[in-house]
Structures are given as C-alpha cells and as structure tokens.
Amino acid sequence: MDEKQLEQAVTTYRPLTIDPMQIADIQPPVGNITARRVLEAGQHAWTHEKRGAMPEASQTGFTLTAPTRYATWAPGDPADGDYVGYGETQASLKLDREDWQAYNQIAFTITTACTNIINPNLIVHFKNDGIIKIPDQYDREGHHVINLSDQATHTYLLDIADLPRDAMTAISFSYDINGSYADLPGEYKVTVERIELQQTANQAVTHGWQPQTISYSHDGYAADASKVAVLPGQQTFAQFEVVDAEGTVAFAGKPEVTTTTTGTYTLLDFSALKAAGEYRLQWADQQTPVFPIGPLQQRYGSTIPKVLNFIFSERCGYPVPGIHSHCHDDVIATHNGEEISFNGGWHDAGDLSQQTVHTAEAAEALFAMAKTLRKTNPALATRLQAEGEWGLDFVLKTDFGDGYHATSAGVSRWTDNRRGTMDDAKARVHNSAYDNYLLSGIVARIARLTPDAAERQRLTAVASRNFGFAEAEFAKHPYATEPIFWEHTLNTSPATYNATVVKAAAALYQLTKDQAYLNRAREAMTSMLACQESVGLTLTDGRKLAGMFYRDEKHRVFQHFNHQARESLFGEAFQAALALPITPAAQAEWQKRARAYGDYLLYLQQFTAPYPMIASGVYFDDEVADKASFDKQHLLIGDEAYRDYQTQLAGGVQIAPHLFVKRFPVWYSFRGNNGVILATAESAALMGQLLADPKLAALADGQLRWIVGNNPFDQSLLYGEGHHYQSQYSNSSGEIIGEMPVGVETKENEDVPYWPQFNNATYKEVWIVTATKWLAVLRALIEMEDCHEQ
After folding, report:
1. pLDDT tens string 178-219
2. Fewer Cβ close by (within 10 Å): the C or N end of the chain?
3. Could you tell me which residue ranges the Glycoside hydrolase family domain spans (predicted)?
4. Global pTM?
C-alpha cells in the first residue's frame, strides 16, 4: 500500500479499499492439486432448513435466498433479540459417514447476486462423527465464514487438513439474516456450485512451533536489537546473506542449529547488522520479501493509519462509506425514566455489539497516540484525536450522571433505526464501582492529554464525579462482581481493581492537586502490592521467582488473562504511583517492586524461544479448586473445564513442585492471545520507560513482531500489513484494512500454537481491543525511543 493510499486514512473519512483478489480464501492459480472429487448429492438431496428458501438445487449445488428481515424472531431465539439476527437460511447435505482423510482442501464456486445486503457472506459447517466429534463441545471448530464479493463469481478454497473428517455426516451452508443497507428492501441470493474435495501437494503449516519455510518480522527489526529468523528443523546449507535494496550483500553469516523447549530450529542471526535500510534475507535457493531495519516509525509507522482505518470503519451511529449507513438509533438504554440512544463509539468486534469500556479504552489510546505524534506528524495526530473525540463523545453520552452508565448491548443485526418496532435492542445499564473507577481514570487521562484547557476542565469534572460514585458504591460493596457475565470487566480481580484505582486517583491528583486523591492512590497502591509475590517462590533450578501478581492478597491464584486482558494496568499503576509525591521509603519500596515485576516479565521470554511471543504466566496446579475465581476467569464452560485444567498445565513447563509456566493461557471456549500478549507488551513497554530498561522495550517490540509474521505461520495477523494475511471473522462489516483478530489459539488442551484457515469466533474474530492495544504498545515504545534519542 503506497503513501497516497495511507494518506487517505488521514485526510478523508472513507475506509481504505481492498482488492477482492487479496482475500486469502479466493483461489490462487491451480497447479498443485494431485487428486480431486466433486461432491455430489447422490441418494441424499440438498435440503433447505430454517428461514428463507432454496429455489434451486441439483446434484452438485443449490441456490439460497432470503429477505433481509422478518417481523418476528426465529424460533428458539431469545425474546429480547439479544445477540441474534432475524434467523438463518441454510442448505444441508447429509453424508453417510464419508471418510475425507484423502483430501486436505475443499473448494466452492460461489455466485453472489444480492440486493442491499451489507457484506454478503456464507458460513460453511461440517459435521464429523468419527474419533473426534465436530462441531466441538464449545461449537468453535467446524465453522468457517466466507466474505463474498457481491455481483461476482469466485472459487473459494478452505484448508481442511486440521479438520477431523474420518466419518463425515453432513455439510451445510448458511447465512445469518441481519438486515440491509439503510433498511432498504433487499434480498440475499447466493448460488453454490461444484463443491470439490481436493488433495494438494503444498500444505500450509497451521499447527505447532515449526515454521513452514521461515519465520521473521515482515515489518523488520530495530537497529540495535536481536535480529533472528527461524527455519524449520536442522538444515545444512553453509551460509545465508542479508542483501540491501541495491543487491549488495550487507551481511553474511552461518546458520545456527538450536534446540529449545519448543523444538529444534535453524536460526539466521544477523543481529550484528545495525545499519538502517531496506533488506531481504537469502539462503539456499530462497529469499524473503524486503523488510526494514531502523527506528519504530520506519518499521511500524504505516500500521498507525491502517489501524486507525479499522477503528473508523467500526464506527457505530455513523454512515461508513462502502460499509453501512447510519445505524442503531433504536438500541436503547433506559434508567430512572430516561432514555439514551446507545449508538456511537465503535462496534466491538465481528458482530455489532457495543461495550462502553472498550470504546473508552480505544478513545484513550487514540488521544495518547495523537499527543505522541503531535510534533512529528501533526496531520495524523489531528486525525487520531478526532477519532478519539468520537469515542469520548459516546462515553460522555452514555453516562446518566448518577453513577449509572449504559454499559453494553448484544447486537448482531442492522436494525431499522425506528424506535418502537420489533427489532429494537436493549442496552444494559449498571452502577458498577469498577466501571466508574475505570471510566474515571480513562477520562482523567484524556483530560491530561487534550491541548484544550476548557475541555480539560470539563473532563476533570466528569472524572471526579465518576470517581466519587465509585467510592460510594465501593464502600457498600467492595470488589463486587459485575451483575451480568457478558460485561467485559467480569474477570476483574482485586489486584487489577486496585491498579485501576491507582490510575484514576493519581490522574485526578495530577489534574486537581487534591490531597484526597493522593491519599487514595497511595492506599490503592499498597493494596495492589499486597497481591504481589515479594519474597519469591523457590524454583527447581534453585532460583527464586518474584514480581508476579496474584488475584488477591491471599496468594492462592495467580493473575491470569485468557481473553479480556488488562495486564497493562500494573504497568500504568507503577508509572502513575512513582510519579506522585511520596516518601523516600515508599519510593524505594515501590521502585523495588516495579523492578521485580519487570524481571518477572523478562523471565517469561525463555519459554517460547526462538519466537518473541511472551508466555502467558505461571500457574499453581490447584487453582481450579477456587471455583469462584475460576468461574470469573472462564465463560461458557462445563464440568469438563475443571477436569481439563491439569491436562492443560501438563502441556506447559513445570518449574517447581506444583508450579507451571503456560505458553498459552489455560482457556476453553474463548481462545486467542493477541489481546493477552499486547496487554503484557504495553505493561512491559511502560515498565521499560519507568526502569530505563531496553530489554523490556525489546520484549514489548517482540509482541508486535510476532503479530506481523515472526510466528510459526509466517503470517501477518494485521490485515493489509506485511503479507500472507488471511480472511478473518468480520461477518458484519467485511474485511477491513487494519483489522486484527483475537489471536492465535491452541488445539484442545495443548500448549502449542494452532492457526487453521477456519475463521470462526473467537480466535479469528476482529476486535476493537486488539487495535486499541496495538496503538497503546506502539505509542509507549515510540515515547521511549524518542527519550533515548534525546
């Protein structure tokens, strides 16, 4: 993507466009297919199910149609329409326990002829009744969404190598009916023909630590950092080279074979090359595309307008050209006889739900990045702040002014925007002490970031008011659990709760110099540090491990994140607290605790070598016994989750009796670790600033590198950046430049990366949270780099 296109994201309020042929599902040139079989209906005809119609069907295909809405909810859907559309239309073919193991790919030729449909798509479902059942117990495996090009015919490919398929009993295709553009009359019409099972000679790596060809950062490396590319196994070529843009060899080295806890690899280490420039790696008869060596802006600068493009494209209540018209006026929050139209901010993910705290956190990240770039790139800074103001407006709008906030809404449809009709949605409204602390801290931080003095005064008043409501509610119900499990702050522990209070109180003290806020910040910091391991646990190798946080002061369960992650709160709390006027004794103790926490983060690096991804943390083997804590950390689980806990730990690394490190979190239904590693990366970057420790900055940078290709799949998980990116689960709005998914998952109870082409929620679902955290990490690193240069 050239500079002119990136400038569009800064100067215009229009999404960056995507060439349909860039969509990874669309068929590349055929030439590596060694066997094929067209799937024919045979004795079982295609059958239509649910709503809509199937006006045509043959031995080799069918047509599905449906109107864009219905006047009633589909049978079995909740009466309030929570998290549903207007039903589904589906075509299914029964299979007689067919064994598909001879094939590793399936192709579909699909013709789309829709009218006024927003992002036409098609979901393919598989059922297997063999050794491993599909769908799985969490209904995550066996589904894939294909985002379609309208008024076009394409052949789409799906890698099924990881799909259990020894006894296939059905294949189905469906569409979730979810409204139309501007509620105009419309029709969904899609024809599927020539469903073909194929065997391909070139099979992509989707599981495990071994890369298929090479793992390296598509966005390059810092000049003074470690620079290592990873090849699979033990290879025997004599030399590799790093070649500059003119074709001159800038560095030559010998490959190194290494064995770590994740396997044996051949490494190309060119850390000695420090000259800024554009390079490519060459080895044997292969080479990489060009990548940079240089400062952060050279490496990641293009990601800022791209991520901004995604955030803008997720706007709710605003017509986003090419995606949707004005939306969701009829999502209503009601409290004390008052109503608020709960639209604005940004849609949360692949669906159209809205989370006030996520919009608030995104607004904060945008304001912070704007301030960081104000001198070096004023045009981009202005656009970032403008986008942040859109989110801030929603945060202020949804505040009822008495402690209650409209907090979230489960929406999966484009509503008709008319209040009083059947498709209206109801937003959740709560007076939560935690939400008030969190929002208070975010608004206070934005107040400190804004250059407008009058706006700073207004925001300070809002933040102070919310802090007061939080204090009143906390006094009555300290550390109370959220009233509904769909709230995205449900997993909050006393440790992160106290970190949130530190952030809010410290920011308000800096704005007002009110001694009461200073006292509260000190008190909350003391409570947070009571949740930290300060003595140290003795490891098998004789060392002591300290610095990590427990969920509370009882020190029974470590602080973990497996989906919604706010590890960065610890880094924010340390930074905020150590900037306060405190006694020399407190300064020394808190600095010591900060150093211990930073050392703990650095300790976690070794378990995923030679990759930069940070391990998720340490676990006791009896944490599952604390059911109250376990149930707050894991949603939508059954009894099997408690049984599988030990199996998941066994896949990690035991470092002491009863103590394990997990590379990926213990998780069940909700999987994907981009949010987890980026939250940790932000904390590491903030601690790097605080402790003047370049190792922590490098740790944070490593998480960005993992996302842009330095992973076993040589894929960029940031759509439109780098190369080898795949279609993601963005079923409501379609593929968007700058989108990022929830992240790499694991298979069943393993502790190794798993990244199938299947793009079901949650792991492949696009998420405003990952975009927010990307900006937050990069902003902290840029500030640290700027300080170092000065």
Report:
1. 999 999 999 999 999 999 999 998 888 999 999 989 999 999
2. C
3. 300-728
4. 0.96
